[in-house]
Structures are given as structure tokens and as C-alpha cells.
Amino acid sequence: MRRNIPSFHYMVAVAGGTDIRCAPYATYGTESLSEKVLQALSDRQACLLANHGMIVVGRNVTEAVSLCIEVESLAQQYVTCLSLGEPTLLTDEEMQEVLAKFPTYRSHRSF
Fold first, then answer.
1. 27, 62, 84, 87: most buried, per Cβ within 10 A?
2. pTM for this predicted structure
3. 21-28, long-range: CB within 8 Å, 24+ apart, which pairs?
């Protein structure tokens, strides 16, 4: 759908920001795609790739796979929410509060 996942749920912060960005489409294997992915990953640990899938980064494979599962779950939840209409989003202030608390929350999780 070439859409970011906005702050419909506080767990969007798991990707490192107030949304999960979607990098614009570019052909696989190109420098253009690399540049777009790097831009979408700026200050994030995960992003979507238009018409491709997603990329996540972690300190190790276990962390990366856990984050991948979380992002996939959030994507499914967001699609479900959209089927009912536009979801009410958390404000930037609410997301900043979550992001400030998240390092402690994440210390109890595997990602």
C-alpha cells in the first residue's frame, strides 16, 4: 500500500520512532533502493519497503527476528483497524512519552 504505519498503537515505538516508515519503491538490487531504505531507517530499527516487504535491524539474529514478528503483528493490526475506518492515533506527545519509557520496557523483552 506504500503507507507508513502511524501511531495507532504505542508498540509502534518498537521500531524506534513515532511511526514505521515505508521506503518508496525502487527496483531490487539498485543503489536507489539502498538509498531509500537508509533514509527510511534513519533513527529507526525497522521500515517497510514499498512493494517488497520489510527490513529490521538488531544487535543479533534473535533480536532482529523478534522485531520482525512485532512489526508484522503491528501491520496486521493496522490493516484490521483500517477495515473499520481511520484509527485514532496517539499524539506526538503521547508517543514521545512512550519512547522515553521504552528503554526500560525493552530491557525486559528480547528485542
1. 87
2. 0.91
3. 21/47, 21/48, 22/47, 22/48, 22/49, 22/50, 23/47, 23/48, 23/49, 23/50, 24/50, 25/49, 25/50, 25/51, 25/52, 28/52
Q: Check: CB of residue 47 under 8 Å from CB of residue 37.
A: yes
Question: Could you report the per-residue pLDDT of 14-73, keeping only the tens digit for each?
Answer: 999 999 999 999 999 999 999 999 999 999 999 999 999 999 999 999 999 999 999 999
Q: Which CATH number belongs to the domain containing residue 83 in this structure? A: 3.40.225.10
Range of the domain at 33: 10-106
Q: Tell me which of 71 and 103 has the higher pLDDT.
A: 71
Query: What is the total count of domains within the chain?
Result: 1
**C-alpha closest to that of 67 among 5, 24, 109, 39:** 109
